[in-house]
Design goal:
The chain has 437 residues and is of the alpha/beta class. Helix content is 37%, strand content 20%.
């Protein structure tokens, strides 16, 4: 069973993508990347002080991404920290937003509370929120990990990211990698897993023991968070309805979605209103969705609407830390009161929360074959700008992975070279593989 799922996982997205050939061209065209040389330090002291990384020195478009071999290695400065040699990282829409300055004021304050008193720059900044790799060093009080352990983690947005040779995290943010996954597959899961769990459990009140037979609607279900949430909720016994475009229907059904609504086939609200009402809505879309989605929840039954598109960071960016936080809090308060008074529905915002122990549980589900990694595209470390470009194209069908370590980098180069001749399995074949496993 594990081998079948592993075989299906890395190309699962492409199997359902009606524009698979276009994706192949995206990979093949990545030859425009910068000339790249593997970093070789000239002395032990140099080896311990610098590493290759992709950084930004200012906020902006894709052009601000810069490759360097002189980025300082993040030291193990705390007794509870572990240093990880990155084998694979993956990109999330948040990385694109952060590259443009989204949340800069609040995240800078979170990195350094004293920055509110000065103008110290947060640059150079390393992006990348997912990591799968190997522990190379541990603080004196680390008890759960040792050098040589294969681990995965989600890097908090306020820390230096995973598009580098090494990253340092606390042991409470790290988890042992699922044994059944490669680093490439594993890197596709941690950030979306921690975000989805925080939204569904902390804000939505669901868990393995309470989700059985609950009706859940996921808007925008074909992206990273959606594809993970479908599988997690099905593992918990929930009934899952998903909104997505028609060409992603095979993907989400293959992952377990019970009902699928094509938002391109007419008024999505009208289609959903014909269904039985929901116990929880996980909104990955935001915007006008809020205007009609809360009406789809069961009234006066403790139903919850959880959106992952909150205005908090946008408000602090545009209005400053104090005014922006106050304005966002006032908005949340008003919407929560309005919904609870009108229909007894709880309105909440969902946020990412770092949680290594939660990833331990996810790892068990992965190794049990209940959660598949969904990898849409892979890029070598030389082609990080192309990976961002792919993500910015929108209409995600899973995750975009960057192979960072040299051995994984070679695999990616081979993937790019063979892409035009590569095989794309049929949608029916993947459904059969998933069904057999």
């Amino acid at each position: 069973m594990g081998s079948v799922r592993a075989m299906a996982s890395t190309r699962l997205l492409c199997m359902f993508n009606a524009k698979a050939a276009g994706s192949t061209k995206t990979l093949a065209s990545a030859g425009r990347s910068v000339l790249f040389r593997r970093h070789v330090c000239s002395s032990p002291s140099r080896l311990q002080s610098c590493m290759p990384a992709w950084v930004i020195d200012q906020y902006g478009t894709n052009e601000v991404l810069r490759y360097t071999e002189e980025h300082p290695i993040p030291s193990v400065s705390s007794s509870s920290e572990v240093m990880i040699k990155v084998h694979a990282a993956s990109l999330n829409p948040l990385d694109v937003s952060m590259r443009g300055g989204y949340g800069a004021k609040l995240l800078k304050l979170r990195r350094d509370p004293m920055s509110v008193m000065d103008n110290d720059s947060e640059f150079p900044l390393v992006l990348g929120r997912d990591v799968s790799g190997v522990v190379v060093d541990c603080g004196s009080e680390v008890t759960h990990f040792a050098p040589g352990d294969e681990v995965w983690a989600a890097v908090p947005p306020w820390k230096q990211g995973s598009l580098a040779e090494f990253v340092t995290l606390t042991e409470y943010e790290v988890s042992l990698k699922p044994k059944s996954l490669s680093h490439t597959e594993a890197a596709s899961i941690p950030y979306v897993a921690n975000t989805a769990l925080s939204a569904l459990v902390n804000a939505g009140g669901l868990c393995r023991d309470s989700a059985s037979n609950k009706r859940v609607l996921i808007t925008g279900g074909s992206g990273g968070i959606g594809t993970f949430s479908i599988q997690l909720l099905k593992a918990w016994g929930a009934h899952v309805t998903v909104t997505c475009s028609q060409n992603a229907e095979g993907l989400v059904r293959g992952l377990g979605a019970d009902e699928v609504v094509d938002y391109t086939a007419g008024d999505v609200a009208e289609q959903l209103e014909m269904m039985e009402k929901f116990d929880l809505i996980l909104d990955n879309v935001g915007g006008e969705t809020e205007d009609w989605a809360t009406k789809l929840l069961k009234p006066w039954s403790g139903a919850k609407y959880v959106t992952l598109v909150s205005p908090l960071l946008l408000s602090t960016d545009s209005m400053g830390l104090l005014d922006g936080t106050f304005h966002a809090g006032f908005t949340l308060h008003n919407k929560a009161i309005q919904n609870i008074i009108s229909s007894g529905v709880f309105y909440r915002w969902g946020f990412y929360a770092p949680d290594g122990p939660a990833l331990d549980e996810v790892s068990e589900l992965v190794d049990a074959g209940k959660i598949l990694p969904v990898v849409e595209a892979q890029f070598p470390f030389t082609q990080v700008p192309q990976a961002f470009q792919k993500l910015e194209g929108g209409h995600a069908r899973g995750k975009t992975v960057v192979l960072v370590a040299e051995e994984d980098d070679r695999q990616a180069e081979e993937l790019v070279q063979s892409a035009p001749m590569g095989t794309v399995e049929s949608e029916q074949g993947v459904k059969e593989s998933a069904g057999q496993s």
